[in-house]
Specification:
GO molecular function: antioxidant activity; oxidoreductase activity
Distance between the termini: 44 Å
CATH superfamily: Glutaredoxin
Helix content: 25-40%
Strand content: 15-25%
Order of helices and strands: HHEEEHEHEHEEH
Shape: globular
InterPro entries: AhpC/TSA (IPR000866), Thioredoxin-like_sf (IPR036249), Thioredoxin_domain (IPR013766)
Largest sheet: 7 strands, mixed
Number of helices: 6
CATH topology: Glutaredoxin
Protein name: AhpC/TSA family protein
Structural class: alpha/beta
Radius of gyration: 15 Å
CATH architecture: 3-Layer(aba) Sandwich
Pfam family, one: AhpC-TSA
Number of domains: 1
Organism: Olivibacter domesticus
Length: about 170
């Protein structure tokens, strides 16, 4: 089956699942600790696991996005625009779509973040993120402390200042 068709079907299933009562209480669904995972770096297609996360005493932030999502595009722009206020975090962009779409998204909406040593772009080519992190919609932002314990989670829009404050807390 074509990759785009698989991704589209997977997203449709996700949308229906998020409407169910099972996912209505997202605070009970989101993991309290960073789960085990295997994603792949977009740049080198190298396996990237929980053990590869930065261990520098700073918050670990995952932004789960879809390149075609306008809310994701807006959040990526805000993160790029406010990079100077976000230097003391480890930021991981994660997407399931094809690498060329992920690269185009980063170039267009988060170009200021490209090449920053505390920013890593990851490809979830095995579709693990949704099952392990339990997001309910795009974008989904997870803020974990250096101890890998959940500090904050939100999906959808958040004001610029609230986003910066939450990521840095």
């Amino acid at each position: 089956m074509n990759y785009k068709i698989k991704t589209t079907l997977y997203l449709i299933i996700l949308l229906f699942a998020t409407k169910s009562d099972i996912y209505a209480q997202k605070s009970n669904q989101v993991p309290k600790d960073i789960p085990e995972f295997t994603f792949y770096t977009v740049e080198k297609d190298a396996a990237f696991t929980r053990n590869n996360l930065a261990n520098n005493g700073k918050n670990i932030v995952f932004l789960f996005f879809d390149p075609g999502c306008s809310h994701c595009q807006q959040e990526a722009r805000l993160l790029g625009k406010n990079y100077n206020k976000l230097k003391n975090i480890n930021l991981y962009f994660v997407a399931m779509q094809e690498k060329n779409l992920i690269n185009a998204f980063i170039a267009m909406y988060a170009g200021e973040l490209k090449g920053k040593k505390n920013v890593v772009v990851l490809h979830d080519k095995n579709y693990e993120f949704i099952g392990k992190f339990k997001p309910t919609r795009y974008p989904a932002t997870f803020v974990f402390g250096a101890d890998k314990k959940l500090k904050a989670y939100w999906d959808g829009d958040k004001s610029e200042q609230d986003m910066i404050n939450t990521i840095n807390k």
